[in-house]
Amino acid sequence: METIDNASHSAHEAVDKIANAANQAAEAIGEKEAQLKNAEQQLLENCRGYVRDNPVTSLGIAIAGGFLLSRLLSGCPSDRK
Known about the structure:
Oligomer: single chain
Shape: elongated
Distance between the termini: 78 Å
């Protein structure tokens, strides 16, 4: 009977350790999520500021990016058979 009690006690300790580790991991992920959201907001604000300060350059970048993206996604007509 003592062996069963020891095994049960060890199993409960293992489960408690795993639950504690999972809880700590969840907290760490939550903190990283908040950091990433803050970084995203800062980057978005920086982009908005750049567009506000440099509208012509921003428009040129957008046109060039759209052109390159359309070329990459559509492929060259000579490649089609």
